[in-house]
Write a structure and sequence with these properties.
alpha+beta, four-stranded antiparallel beta sheet, globular
Length: about 70
């Protein structure tokens, strides 16, 4: 099932509050309707999937951290 604009707004509000990141944006993924992309300060950081099983909806956030990114920290 597709992620709606209302869901994107609610998810963005939730994630901004949870991570304390006012610049966090949840954007629809242009090629997949059940997926969105997460950006902070304009940088892509994660994907968010909408899972609908047995009438229950959950959202899964997937974030990859590269070892070379840890060296910059």
């Amino acid at each position: 099932m597709d992620v709606t604009k209302d869901e994107l707004t609610r998810l963005e509000t939730y994630l901004r509050k949870t991570f304390g990141a006012a610049s966090l944006e949840v954007r629809p993924q242009p090629k997949k309707n059940d997926m969105a992309e997460i950006f902070i300060n304009g940088d892509f950081i994660a994907t968010l999937y909408r899972i609908d099983e047995d009438g229950e909806v959950e959202y899964q956030l997937q974030m990859a951290i590269l070892e070379m990114d840890l060296e910059e920290a």
